[in-house]
């Protein structure tokens, strides 16, 4: 049989090669797999950068903590606009008592006053200074003031909280009990913890508006409205519908931002939900550090400077100190006087079980009757119970009030109180023989 050349070519193709359709199909599949790999790689890369950014901000928190503990104030921002590394103002804290830069304006670029000032509330005159982290005063490397995208962090502080009171400056204005003037509109569920709905405008699932002493902002991968290491504003304009625009508005219009910053869940989606900033405030990590201070009378004693309540095991304490769980006070009986004592003026029921009003003084149990403490009943009476901060005295002999009779006397009792005393006594004859029970009335 004679075959044509075309038939033989087709047979060879079927025996040892791929058709164009097969090659095209494989190309599409490989393209889809490559796209998925690239997307996954970018996601992992973003997560890795975010983790590094969070770690860097934690390190900055430690530096801020050390500065706060040593100087009793927050650092004042450094100049940032047009300030290069060969400028003496680079990384040096400015003077937060200097109010020569007017509210709603910025100082001259390239000078020691190259920072911006806003206020909150509007018209209050309470100044907020915005600039760079003063790495020289924080004793950190200049590379540490750059985020993972090699841009400078934005640092803003309530000016009065960056001026310590000291012998050299008795007019200092730092006060750990003041909340600051920086307004943070927070929709991030990481920060938005509504412990008590209805209190302080706290609504479960809604944004929490709070005031802070300072805020630190990492500008994110979009490089919008951030400054480079040499003080040059990025070419990405601070504009658009994203909620992170508010955080760079100070670079273009400090008079309109009114000391307000946003915090929201990270999102790279275009539109109103776009937010690639990372923020940290004084209450996120280290405000608790300065709540303790030495007493004036004894430097070895400390006290809590905050006027609010403290909780152990609870995030919503109702008293000056509330412990959810067991509290142990170790006693050393060999000491003189014994250690491990708790000292109280009153012992009360829990708020939920009696309104906290059912109380008695501990001296009722542990006091000395000869000095007006303890519990004492008249002669021939015994203490049958305690109610309303007083002992319930019952007659020990005879048939008074229906008690033991004749030659019997009280050797035991079961005492209750429910709107009035109810007592059942165990009577014993003077000979020692049991004589039954009796009820007092």
Order of helices and strands: HHEEEHEEEEHEEHEEEEEEHEEEEE
Q: What is the gyration radius calculated from CA atoms?
A: 37 Å
Approximate helicity band: 10-25%
- Shape label: elongated
Q: Order of strands side by side in the largest beta sheet?
A: 1-2-3-4-7-9
Low-confidence stretches: 1-5, 192-206, 285-290
Q: What value does the average pLDDT take?
A: 76
How many domains, in number, for the residues?
Answer: 2
In whole angstroms, how far apart are the ends? 131 Å
Q: Which structural class do the helices and strands define? A: alpha+beta
- Number of DSSP-assigned strands: 20
Q: What is the overall number of helices?
A: 6
Largest beta-sheet details: 6 strands, antiparallel
